[in-house]
From TrEMBL:
It comes from Terriglobus roseus. Residues 3-219 form the N-(5'phosphoribosyl) anthranilate isomerase (PRAI) domain. This is N-(5'-phosphoribosyl)anthranilate isomerase. GO terms for molecular function: phosphoribosylanthranilate isomerase activity. Keywords: Amino-acid biosynthesis, Aromatic amino acid biosynthesis, Isomerase, Tryptophan biosynthesis. Pfam families: PRAI.
Amino acid sequence: MWVKICGNTRLEDCQRAIDLGVDALGFIFAHGKRLVTAEHVRTITSLLPAHVPTFGVFTQRDPEFILHTAEVAGISGIQMHGVFDPSLASALRVRFPKGDSPRLIQVVHWDVDEALELQQARLRGELNALADSGLVDAALMDSRTKQDSGGTGVTFDWIAAAEVVRESRLPVIAAGGLRPENVAEAVRILKPWGVDVSSGVEASPGVKDAERMEQFIQAARTGSLER
Ligand SMILES: O=C(O)c1ccccc1NCC(=O)[C@H](O)[C@H](O)COP(=O)(O)O
C-alpha cells in the first residue's frame, strides 16, 4: 500500500514521516491553509533523502508556472488538482517522464453532495479518459464539497466508489477524510493502489501530528493485508 502524506509545511514533519516509512510527501502550491512557496519547499526538499518522491499539488493551468515552481522547489512529481487538461499533462510529461513510481497524478473529484449514480458515471468516464490519454501515472480520488476541493477532511461513499475503482485501468489513490481511525476500512472496501492524507494526521492546518502519522501508516498497511 503506497502512502502519501500531503499538505506538508515543516521539515521535521517530513523527516518524521520518512522515518515512519511513508512512500511520498506532498506540498500545496494551489491555495488555502497549507499553501507554501517554492523557496520554502526547497529548504525542505534539499534536506530530504533524494529517493523519497515529493509532489507539488497545483490547481493552476499554466505549464510554465508549474515547471518553474517545481524546479525551484526541487520536487519530483506533480499532482494536478484541477480538471484534466491533456495539453498541460503533455507539457509536464516532458519534465516528469514515466518512472518506476508515479510522477504525474491527476485528481478526480467525488462530489459528496451529488447523487451517487451521477458520481459513479462521471468518474467512470473521467478515469477511462485518463487511462486512454496515456499521459498520467495514477488517479487520485478525492472528495469535493460545495466549499472545497482539497484537504476537505470529508469522506465519500466508499461502497459506491469501490465499483468504479475496481474497473479503473489506472492505479487509484484514495483520499478525502482518511484518518488513522477509518483508513483500514477504506482500504478494505475501496481496494485502492494507494492512500493520501492531509488533515487526518494534523495537529493544526499544515502541522502534522507524529503519533497520528504513525497510526495512519500502520492502519493503511494493516487494512491492505486484510483485503
Ligand atoms: O490540502 C489542501 O489544503 C488543498 C488545497 C487545495 C487543493 C488541494 C489540497 N489538498 C490536496 C491533497 O492532496 C489532500 O491531501 C487531499 O485533498 C486529502 O485531504 P484530506 O481530506 O484533508 O485528507
